[in-house]
Amino acid sequence: MVLELKKSRPIWQIMFSTHHTDVGLLYTVTGLTFLFMAGVLAMLIRTHLFFPGQNFLISDSVTFNRIFTVHGLTMLFLFALPVANGIGNYLVPLMVRYKDMAYPKLNAIAFWMNPIGGVLLWLGFSDTSWVSYAPYSVIRAPGPAADMMIFGLKILGVSSILSSINFIVTILKCKHPDLPLRKVPLFAWSMLTVSLMTLVAMPSYAAALIMLLTDRLGVSGFFNPTAGGDPIAYLHLFWFTFHPEVYIFLLPAIGMMYELIPRFSRKPLYSQGSGVFAFVMLGMIGFASWGHHMYSTGMDFTTKVVFMIGTLAAVPASGMHVFNFLATMWGGRIKFAAPMLFAVGGIALFFSAGAGGVLNSAMPLDFISHGTYWVVGHMHLFLTGTIAFGFVGMVYYIFPFITGRMYNEKLAKIHFIMMLWGTVQVFFTQHLLGLEGMPRRIYDYPPEYTSWVQLNQIATVGAWILGGGFLAFLINLIYSSSKGKEANMDDPFDLGGKYYYPHTAKNPHHIGY
Amino acid sequence: MGHDTAEWVMVGVVIAILLYVGVDSWVVQKEVEDVPADAETIKVTGQQWFWSFEHQDGTKEISTLHVKKGHAYNFEIYGKDVMHSFNIPDYVVFEDVVPGHVNHAWFAPDQAGEFPIQCREYCGLLHYNMRGSLVVEDTP
Ligand code: HEM
Ligand SMILES: [Cu+2]
Ligand SMILES: [Cu+2]
What we know:
The complex is a heterodimer. By secondary structure, chain A is mostly helical. In chain A, 69% of the residues lie in helices and 0% in strands. Chain A has helices spanning 11-15, 20-48, 61-95, 104-124, 136-140, 145-173, 186-217, 231-265, 272-285, 301-312, 315-329, 338-361, 363-369, 373-403, 409-435, 450-483. The longest helix of chain A has 35 residues, at 61-95. Chain B is of the alpha+beta class. In chain B, the strands form two sheets. In chain B, strands 3-2-1-5-8 form a five-stranded mixed sheet, with no helix packed on it. A five-stranded mixed sheet of chain B has the order 4-10-9-6-7, with no helix packed on it. The chains are: A mainly alpha, B alpha+beta. Residues 131, 246, 249-250, 292-293, 311, 314-315, 318, 354, 357-358, 360-361, 366, 369-370, 375, 378-379, 382-383, 387 of chain A line the site of protoporphyrin IX containing FE.
């Protein structure tokens, strides 16, 4: 079956396919769909917070709590992970010159666990917040919502372990024998790193979820102090997974920037070796810092110091990535098409997010920022500012490969300006709100705190601009995939070289490029 | 490999900044955790969704805490149901309420007036309204 680009196929042929480009398409489209769904929730949250006072837009706090919980869970597990896996599915087999993923059926199974997990999360609509701290999640969170969330996350966790195994085997075992591992493109290196990290990190959360469930059923008391358990144990199990997990979200986006920056700078990458080194370093040091989420839980001084050192130790490696990008762009003939704009914007935001991260790692400063909007601003500068920027840039870049057509460049530039503007306006402002002491996850705030009111309104307007940018993205994707100009598949971006991804790769019998 | 001097300089500068941040944090945190010997103990209990206080002399208060300017106070923080976080933003008093654990924080107010007390760890339905106030009295 040779797939011609312009011949449309019935949807079930894609759905039941196990070919890596088809599974990649399913992952990417699913991930983007959840991005827009969770984006609507974000708009509700921000719009509600425009005015203090309880009856504006969302009329009760439980609904508000459910909304921010599902927003967070969806963005992390149903947008960030699936899109990374989607692009990984498209590109990793090409990069290691193999005909498909190592285990195509396992690949499709891992994908289909995502919609199932997603349905459980959305039908449950839990109010535990994405971290689901015990004992709230054990003794107070209403079922069946919380239980459905636990099952949903369980399924998504298994899915991410399965897809990690698949990437690891594809890269290490199915790599073309003529291709030494150190020469494998950096995006594939990022997928290898995060897949290995997933195998180490995920089991502790998997255990914590089971323990939460049995605690909720009343047959155990791991995290329930009235049954002799300890909530702090949950926090350790949770953050042992989720600090490394933040790098698992991040590194594929950095890998995508390694695809974009040299191409659009029309210059070879500054240093492959330093990119590989920085990935591997982050992959290891990422495990040494989970306690920075727990400074204020009553941790003793020495433990805090150890975790602070572990956190700071990861920063030089992040700096090496930024350096590598800048050194690659230096003196290049840069073409600022949409993918490059997003990559460069993402790097700038990555830098500012990292600088803020260093500040919350410093123990005394974290007692000012923890639990406030500062942390919300910090993580969103990474999640929106860096990860979503990298993903969006990559989606634009790979668009001709997927559809055979070009997206609308003008609309994409408008998208970029709105997204950059919005991101800065919302998330920098949230840092300031944190410094003003506003706690996160609050449904309402006192109207007499005028600085809170003003900053919230600035942030909300920023969120609307950001949302408008994503609307432009959605329109562009839908319109251009059927009506866009036909792409010149040899060099769709006019960079004067060959397009990296040969459309013949969609033929199931292809062998790399 | 393309490692050249510029990259090493960058790594060196970053490490120097991190060393500064780390050492400074160590010094400041050490100071912050050094409770004065004459600090009076106040027991704080956080529960859904209000704060209660018990002074050393046995007086109890709910939601509003009265203290004297210029004295040092050591909070013993207890929890009853779920996690909360005891926070007086203006004095950077901040420590989690963890049921089953007793946590500590101390402060010495140096300005009279009324200051907000709030919860900074999500605790459910009325988390947003788990507020109280601190009244610092100007009596010598
Ligand atoms: C330079 C690297 C980084 C440093 C030094 C850093 C440091 C920190 C610290 C100290 C905290 C705890 C703040 C608090 O709760 O008081 C934190 C929270 C957080 N960070 Fe980072 N971080 C870094 C990179 C990242 C990246 C790359 C991501 C995501 C891709 C990320 C996502 C988060 C999230 C989600 C939280 C808050 C989780 C929550 O409480 O809900 N961070 N970070
Ligand atoms: Cu972390
Ligand atoms: Cu609370």
